[in-house]
Write a structure and sequence with these properties.
This protein has 307 residues and is an alpha+beta fold. 32% of the residues lie in helices and 25% in strands. It has eight helices and 14 strands. The strands form four sheets. It has a seven-stranded antiparallel beta sheet. The protein has a three-stranded antiparallel beta sheet with strand order 3-5-4, with helices on one face. The model has no long low-confidence stretch (mean pLDDT 90).
């Protein structure tokens, strides 16, 4: 049994593949093809590359309908469906709010109430018109800005897994940073993959973390088993902004425009990384109240909200 480890930096994170199979050369070739696809997707979806399809939409779609590739169009359809399912807690049009709070290109700072209201008026997937007849996208509100950061890595993991399956790979662990993990098949010894969710590095609350299993790693808030399923994790970490006397995180509630306050970390296990990525973000926004809502739409899912 051969084992191949591959990694590449894309989408502002490190994607890693651990693949098991009979032939090392075949595993390596499949893994490199999967990583090539992730790089290709970054070129299509990046908010920060002027030549990407998303950047072109943000630049032109408020003036004229813009034609996109069928895969990008289908991704936007999925994003709109998840926006509706989550009641707007996941929203890929959150770009104006992220920019307003300074999470794009300047030092973060709390905006005025008037500026916040103006930015909120430019947010909402109901303001994006998708025409399936010719794969065109039109923004119905000037200043609307797509940001696929809460779904892009999960989508990339799904595309990588599809390539690996088509190449005959049946055992592997694929992840994009710490936010999207997919367990392909089983471990070489026949057990499912085990993945631990560690406490956030900047946790503001006391953490009661249990020791994880040897396979999953160090102390954990929870441990999930994956077999042809994906774990999505969203957490308040990284860049913060001073809001009055409090520090607030970089994850915003698209409905209010304010940093999330109901939870500090959310994790979701579902068959698709695209959905686990998007719905972990939605659950972070909704907090524990979101568990029942999302259970109605995705019965049998596994989820964690902390604290």
């Amino acid at each position: 049994m051969a084992t191949v480890l591959l990694a590449r930096r894309a989408m502002n994170t490190r994607f890693e593949l651990v693949l098991h199979g009979a032939r090392e050369t075949a595993l390596r070739a499949a893994g490199e093809e999967a990583l090539d696809e992730i790089e290709h997707l970054e070129a299509q979806l990046s908010l920060f590359r002027p030549t990407s399809e998303i950047a072109r939409l943000n630049r032109d779609a408020a003036r004229v309908p813009v034609k996109v590739s069928p895969p990008v169009f289908r991704l936007l359809e999925r994003a709109r469906a998840l926006w509706a399912l989550s009641g707007g807690a996941f929203d890929p049009t959150i770009g104006p709010l992220m920019r307003l709070w300074g999470f794009r290109d300047r030092e973060p700072a709390e905006p005025s109430a008037a500026a916040l209201a103006e930015a909120r008026a430019r947010v909402g997937m109901d303001k994006v018109e998708l025409d399936p007849a010719d794969f065109t996208v039109r923004f119905m509100s000037p200043g609307l800005e797509l940001d696929l950061g809460a779904i892009g890595k999960g989508y990339a993991v799904d595309c990588a897994v599809q390539i690996l399956r088509e190449a005959g790979v049946t055992s592997g662990l694929i992840h994009g940073g710490t936010s999207s993990v997919y367990g392909l098949g089983k471990m070489p010894d026949g057990r499912p993959w085990k993945v631990a969710v560690p406490p956030p590095a900047e946790a503001p609350h006391p953490v009661n973390a249990a020791p994880a299993s040897a396979e999953a790693g160090g102390p954990a808030l929870a441990e999930f088993t994956l077999r042809d399923t994906s774990l999505g994790v969203s957490a308040v970490s990284g860049r913060v902004v001073q809001a009055g006397s409090r520090l607030r995180g970089h994850v915003l509630d698209p409905r209010t425009g304010e940093p999330v306050q109901r939870a500090y970390l959310a994790a979701v296990v579902l068959p698709e990384a695209l959905e686990s990525d998007a719905l972990s973000t939605a659950l972070l926004v909704l907090g524990r109240a979101g568990l029942a809502r999302l259970e109605r739409h995705r019965p049998g899912w596994q989820a964690l909200v902390w604290p």
